[in-house]
Each structure stands twice: as structure tokens, then as C-alpha cells.
Amino acid sequence: MAYKFNMTRGNAILNFSEEFCQSRCQLIESESFAKVLEKYIKSIKRRDTTVYGYLHNIQEDDVDLLDNLRGIFKLLLVMTADEVCFVRPEVKPYFQDKDMFVKMVEDIYLFWRRLQRYAVVFNETKRSGYQNVQFADAQNEFEELVLEVYRSIEQALGKKDKVMRQITAGVNAGLTVTHMRPFLPYEYRNLDEIPFIESVVIHPPFITYSKRNKRDGVFPEMKTNPIEDKKFDADSWFCYPAKVGDLLCFVYFNVKFMAQGVTLCNLFDLADEEEYRNRKPDLIYVYGYEDGEMNQSFYQDESNNMIVALLSANDDFDYFGYMKKMCLTLHNVQKINHRELPVHGAMVKMTLHNGETKNIVVMGDSGAGKSETIEQIKVYGAAYITDLKTIYDDMGVLSLDDQGKVKTSGTEIGAFVRLDDLDAGYSFKELDRSVFMNPDKVNARIVIPITDYKDVVEKHDVDMFLYANNYEEGGDALHFFDNADEALEVFRAGNRMAKGTTTEYGLVGSYFANPFGPVQRREQTEPILQDYFKRMFKQGVKVGQLRTRLGIKGNEHNGPKDAAIAILKYLTGEDELKELPEEE
């Protein structure tokens, strides 16, 4: 990164390696502050606000206005407004309406806070900008400095706050990055100069907004390499080396989509340098390439044994679902190539009071009721369960051990869930580690870490393999199939009542309820699917369907509740479930 500060698409990126302000005066004089103030003036001019009308009547030239304001702010750090007017009579018109000037100061502060703000430091250099301060400490110091400048100026204007709020006024997140030449095949030499992310610091609450709040369609497979021969400006890209299950994925993202890239740290484990320094990745994903197109395809690079993908920079793709689901599509296609079966579902490891451990996989497409049912199991099974651990929340894989026994493992350390699902107290860890996405809009989401990576990639036994049926009202809440052919009719159809979590509505279906790999590779997946189901029946795995009724109006709560109770009754052998006594 040759620049000290960059503003693009609502993102403010501060290069602490080049410029790190350590005093109030340095902040006002900094290139970063000048660019923020310049963008602010352009913004209020475009919207023709009352503040701009007030300022324009004093100084018509925006360049001179910028210089004047910076000079005034610098003086207000050490003088009152009256003293500034006495020392610099030419700026007196700016204070003819002091309330309007205070409003402008608060407006600038809010403009800064509404930006998505990121700090970046390169670990291989210690230039004058960053000094020798620890990165996390530097971010805290910067935040305190911004608050101090804001409050000092307001006090100089005579405004005294009786209540002070220690909000995130510095950066939302910080990245330490390094220039490391990756171990890539010749065809991908155009990616060599892009810096790798080594660590991420998030300052909650981390709230992001994207142009879209739903994902549409599936990712098609193409016959030509979408990355080869493309040109990349290393200053505009970062690489997040993600561990997607047991596969290594280099995710290259455009700085214009920083929120989507940084949020990956809550979903996929960040690989250490020794895990990728001399290793070719299994997957490569380029997110946000500015080609003016609508590309969202993946390609199987057979000569290098990699699956690669490119997604264009477009407002229609500005949604974290396009980041997450493409990574999972690449993972799933690679797994299918190795005769493993991707599962679109959730898995919990349940330990009962009698010492038994049961591993339950609930499969289904988006909105089928997987997460809701698991939460209800936790609520109504408190008297029977000593521990309930989520192994994966959205995507897993079935594989075979050395003896040919079906095992399962996950792909993500986190979950990407609707805020609506949390109303009932979804079984996650601390919410203060969450990234919130479009929280005031339909299909608002959070991304939150829920599982340790070692638990995700461990090969677990499968005791129950259930299909989340959210569209049938009649029949038992829990029903087991007698044979593989009967089960495959339901699992293969992948039906669900769409709840609007994507752009689909009504009763829809997708092959094996998994449009992220199996749909694109149906012919290749089908024999694997049949083989695994026959093995599960032979091994005594209870394969069935769970009628969650989540897609039927009026059953949004009782459906998952009844499904959870049915599972608990089956596991405990009791006709009626007991409740824990209330705490005194």
C-alpha cells in the first residue's frame, strides 16, 4: 500500500505503517483528516444541506473552505471560539451562528463514524508512521485521539457534554498484513504481489451495510480459467488465507468490499503462515474484480488440482452470502472430486445425562428449520442433556474412514444466521463477538464464531441423519425411513417452503438440498449419494425426516418445538419430558 489513506465505496482505510497520528495537532494536519473533510464537503454540497448553505455563504470556493476549516479546527484545540476570532478576525464569519458551527462539527464526526473504518499495518516494516507500538494498542490510542479532538473542539465552542459515550470512534477493524510471495502455479503469477492478512482485530459492535441483503441463484461452472491473464493492482487487494474445512482457500478481495473480506475471520479459521508458505492452495476465490461484467463462475483447474472462481465487482453481488457460498461451492466440488458427500445442514454433538453421546445431523436448504430445531432441543432437553456442542451450522461433509464407515465433519468455525433466529435465544457464544449485517433490514444477519476449528475438522460418527421438512403439516414430527431408496426420494428432491432468505418464494426444490456443488455436479454426485445412504442404513444410522413446519404460517414456533421434543422423546425413551426445577 503506497497510500497513507484511502476512501472508497464507504470504506476508510488508514495505513498505520505510513501515517500514525500521535497528537491532536498531527491528526488535524494529517492527509487522512484532509481527505475525510474533503469528502464531507462534497457530500453536503451534493445534498445541498443547510450546513453547506451556511458555509457557502461565507466561502464559495470549496478548496479554500477546506483550508479555512482545517486552520480553525487547529486553533480550537488550544483556544476558545472567541479567542480564535480575536487572533484571526478573517474567520469571524464562520462563528456568526455558533449553533450552526457546532452542528457542522457534529455532522463531520457522524460522517466519519458512518464510514467503515479499517487500519492496516505491514509487519515487515516499522516506518515513522507506526513506530514500535503494538497494533491493538495503536488502534486504542487512535480511538482515544479521535474522541479527544472531537471533544476538545466542542468544548472550545462552549458545548459541554454531561453524558459521554465511549463509542467506537477510531476504526472498526484492524489488519496486520505481510508481503509474502505465495506458492502458486505459473498461471496465477498475477496474484503474487497481493499482501496476505496475518491477523485481524475487530472492535465490536461491528455493524456493516451492503447494497444487497439476499443472494440469488447458483454459481455456474465455466470451461475457461476466469483468473488467468487478469491484472491486479496490489494496493487494491488483500488475501485472506482461509481454512474451509480441511482445505486451504486463498480468498482475494477488493478493498472496496472490505466488510465482506474482514468478516471472513468470524466464519473461516485464518491460516497461519507456516500452513500456506510453501503450499499450493486447494481453492482460489477472487471477490470483487472490476471488469464491468456479472461474472460469478467457478472453474476446475485440472492441471493444478485446484477449483478457482471469480466474482465481478457489482452492487448485485455486494452481500456476504456471495462470499460465503462461493467458498463453500469450491470446497464442495473439490470434495465431490474425492468421492466425499457435501451436506447442507447442521450437526450437533449431544451428551445425555446417562453418559451416551449422540451425533445428530439435520439437513435442509435455507429456512428449513435446522437451526431453530437445534435451539429447541437445547431448551426442552435441559433436564436430559449435559452438553450440546454445535459442530457445524450450515455446511458439512460425509466421508469414509479406513474401515469404510461414514463419518462427518464441518467447514466453518462460525455461523451466518438471520437475526430473527436469535429471538428465541439461538445457541451461540458471546454476541459481543458478532459482525452485524444490515441489522435494520429484512433478512438481517450476524456472523459469529461458534466452534473451535479442531472440533470442526474432527471426523465424527453419525447417529441420526434427518431431513428438515418445513412444508408438510400432517404426519409424525419424527419419521424414520425403512430403506435407502425410500429415504433418497425425500433427500434427493430437496424440497422446502422458501421463507425469503434468498430470492425464492413458495415450494421449491434443489438436488440434495444443496445448490453449492451437488446441483452443478449432479451426475458425479448421484453414485456417491447412493453409496453413502446404503452404507448408513447398513451401519445402523437412523435416517429419517423431521417435520419442522417452519414454512407453514402459524407454525414458526410450534413446528421446531414439536420436532425437537420428538427427537428428545426418541433418545430418552420417555413419553413425557420433565423440566428442570426453577432456580430459587
Structure summarized in a few sentences:
This protein is of the alpha/beta class and 584 residues long. The protein is 31% helix and 25% strand.
Structural descriptors:
584 residues; alpha/beta; Phosphoenolpyruvate Carboxykinase, domain 3; 3 domains; nine-stranded mixed beta sheet; six-stranded mixed beta sheet; 15 helices; 26 strands; 31% helix
How do the strands and helices of this protein lay out in sequence?
Blueprint: E1 5-8, E2 11-15, H1 24-29, H2 31-47, H3 50-58, H4 62-76, H5 81-87, H6 98-114, E3 116-122, H7 135-156, E4 173-178, E5 196-202, E6 206-208, E7 237-244, E8 247-254, H8 258-262, E9 269-270, H9 273-276, E10 283-289, E11 296-301, E12 306-312, H10 320-337, E13 341-352, E14 357-363, H11 370-380, E15 385-392, E16 395-400, E17 406-410, E18 414-418, E19 435-437, E20 445-449, H12 453-457, E21 460-461, E22 464-469, E23 478-480, H13 484-493, E24 495-499, E25 505-509, H14 522-539, E26 542-547, H15 558-572
What is CATH's topology name of the largest domain?
A: Phosphoenolpyruvate Carboxykinase, domain 3
Strand count? 26
The number of helical elements comes to 15
The low-pLDDT segments are: 126-132, 423-429
Radius of gyration: 27 Å
In CATH, what is the class of the largest domain? Alpha Beta
Structure, explained:
The chain is of the alpha/beta class and about 575 residues long. The protein folds into three domains: about 5-170, no CATH class; about 175-335, no CATH class; about 340-415 and about 450-570, Phosphoenolpyruvate Carboxykinase, domain 3 (Alpha-Beta Complex), CATH 3.90.228. The chain has 15 helices and 26 strands. Helix 13 packs across helix 14 (about 520-540). The longest helix has 22 residues, at about 135-155. It is elongated, with a radius of gyration of 27 Å.
